[in-house]
Predict the structure.
Amino acid sequence: MPGPESVPAATTYRDAGVDIDAAAEAVARIAERARATLGSGAAPIGHFGGQYRLPAGPDRILVASADGVGTKLKLAFALGGEAHARVGADLVNHCVDDLLALGARPLFFLDYVAMGRLDPATLDLLVGGMVGACRENGLALLGGETAEMPGLYAEGEYDVAGFIVGEVAPDRLVDGSAVRAGDVLLGLPSVGLHTNGFSLARRILGLTGDGAHDRGRLAVPLPGAGGGTVGEALMRPHPSYRPMLAPLLGLDGADGSPLVRGMAHITGGGLVDNVPRMLPDGLAATVDPSAWPVPPVFEALCAAGRVPPAERYRAFNMGLGMVVAVAEDDVAVALARLPGAVVAGRVVPHREGPRLVVQGLPEDPAAGA
């Protein structure tokens, strides 16, 4: 597997230019400032989507989210062609999964695409990927904005963001308030990096932004992948978990009462920062990393970059794309409806201070380095 000519003793996300702690602090400040705008219809900021109760009545809650696909775009720039469609679909699926984390049914999607110089062929592939994912998820692509800004983006590069709105009945809202100590955490498998951790992956691989150089490194076979390349592993799609979760959430006409008490979409910040977002105060999670398989791409990246064990579970999803909390009595039914899901851990009391933690993960940055 390719790597930079000189790999440090241990590579962290901060070394790659992404400071998760600084980002979390900035988001906390933004949430505090935004609180003054919320009024009586909106819920506080902090979950995977924002909630807004419709003024016309209390029977529906709007859920909205906005996101991007990070520096996975750099791989699309290097690979070209269908890679642009891939990141377009990834953008939609990422946003859909954020809404699912609150039990919401997606309604419509808008996009923002910015290019230095409009490239109709690239734009067609990118938006085509979005359209395909919107159709698969049953939501409307209402429109968006395409901005041409000469001098701001390098030749052949662009940025893209997505905005999604869904709805949920108040008695079907999955905001984590129903989670209790003793609940079981089920993990839904990831297929790779999805749309997070690419700045670290690119640093480990020594990608420079030069197309020919990067394509050469991405074409190298990935250890343990049965002949697949590094590039193929990194470009695996960010899946929509809607088909798996709909029966448990009562979506798409599914019968029966929802079984899910809380959900976490494992994106930037990994298990460490995302699982606590679904837990009420006074609760924590304990997980067993040996309970689920880790895709070869993570093993290869962490070995090549000598990524400390604790850093891995914050920079990458390490094999879990969603974590679902259900009552212990509902585990058998939930597992029967979630092919590929595993029992990943439990919800436990937490009385060690205000900060929620995920227990059972490596905590010593030097351990195993």
Remarks:
- Residues 364-369 have pLDDT under 50 and may be disordered.
- The chain is about 30% helix and 20% strand.
